[in-house]
Predict the structure.
Amino acid sequence: MLNLDFHPSGRHFLQIPGPSPVPDRILRAMSLPTIDHRGPEFGALGLELLGKVKRVFKTDNPVVIYPASGTGAWEAALVNTLSPGDRVLMYETGHFATLWQKMALRLGLEPEFIGLPGYEGWRCGVQAEMIQARLAEDGEHAIKAVCVVHNETSTGVTSDIAAVRRAIDAAGHPALLLVDTISGLASADYRHDEWGVDVTISGSQKGLMLPPGISFNAVSDKAIAASREARLPKSFWAWDEVLEANTTGYWPYTPSTNLLYGLNEALDMLLDEGLDNVFARHRRWAAGVRSAVEAWGLEVQCRDPAVYSPVLTGVVVPEGVDADAVRRTIYERFDLSLGTGLGKAKGRMFRIGHLGDCNDLTLIATLGGCEAGLKLAGVELSGSGVQAALEYFAAHPRNAAQ
Ligand code: PLP
C-alpha cells in the first residue's frame, strides 16, 4: 500500500527522468469512460492518433504502438528485424545501452559491444567514427544492425544520430540502424526519416508526458522488408498484424484505451506548441539546471557540451559522498524524487529530470531541495545553484531565440 502519510500536503516533486509528471489536461483526458475497442468511435480515434504520432517521430512511415513499457519495444525492434545468431553492433553509452545489449544476448543474437574504454563512455556520446571503423572491417556484412541510444537516461548524454547514419553510409554498409529514443522523443530533436533510422524505439512516460504503459516502434520500409525474412520467434511483437489492423484504426488485441486518449491529448499539446518550441523549452531548462550545478562547484556527468541532454542532468557528487544517501535525504526531507545512479554510475551521481509537467519554478524548487540536501549531507558547495538558475532563467526569457 502506498504510504500516503508520507506526502502530507502539496504535490510530490517527481523530478526523475521519467516517468515524468503528467499534466492535468492529460490526466483528465484519460479519465473519460473506457469505450469498446472494436467500436466505431475507437476506430476513429485510432486513425487520428496513428496519423498524428508520426509527426512527433518526424516520419511518413507507420508507427507501431504496443501496450507495453519501453523494454517491450526494444524486444520488438530486435525480433522483428533479426534472426538467431545475427551479429549486431551495439554502443555502450550507459546503463540502458547495457541492458539492451543483455537483451540481445538473451534473444540469441551476437552483440558486439563497443565504446570508449572504462567509465569514459558513460560521460560521452556515441563516437560515430568507431562505428564506421568497425563496419569498414566487416567486408562480408556479417553485422546486421547497429543499435544506439539517442538520449542515455542513466547519464544525461545524448548521441548524434545523424553522425551515426553518416558513419554507416561512409562505410558502405547495409546494416539496419535501430535507435532507442525512449527518453529523447518529444523533448529532444529527433528525425526518424531524415536521419535514415530503420527502427525508432520510444515510450510513453518521458517526453510524451503520459504514465508508463505504451511504447513505440517507428519503422522504415527497409525494416519492414527485413521483418519478412527475420527468423527470431515473434507473435505479440510481430509488426505485420498490428500494421494490418492499424489501417482501419484498430489493434489485433486489446489496446490501452485510456492511455491512448492521453496520447491523443499529449500529441495535441506538443503539436500545438510546436516541436521546435518544445525542444527549446527543454534546452533552456537544462541550461538553467547546469548553471546551478556549476555554481555549486560540482560537475555534470556529461563531459561534452555538444551532447548535453535537454531531458535530464546527471550531477556528480564529490569522492567519498554517497549520491544515494544524498538522494534519500532529499526525498525524506523535501518529498522530492531524483533519479538514482544506475549500473557503473551507482553512488557517484544523481539525476535531475527536467521534462514533463514542469516550469521554471518547479525546477527552482527542485534545485532548492537538491541544494539543501547536499548541504545536509555535508557537501561543501561553492555557491548557490538556486540563485544561479534564477538568474539564468531571468536572463533567458521563455520564447526568446534560443
Ligand atoms: N531505454 C531508455 C533510454 C530508458 O530510459 C528506459 C527506461 O527508463 C528504457 C530503455 C526501458 O524502458 P522501460 O523501463 O519503459 O521498459
Remarks:
- The chain is about 40% helix and 15% strand.
- Residues 18, 69-71, 96, 149, 153, 180, 182-183, 203, 212 surround pyridoxal-5'-phosphate (CB under 6 Å).
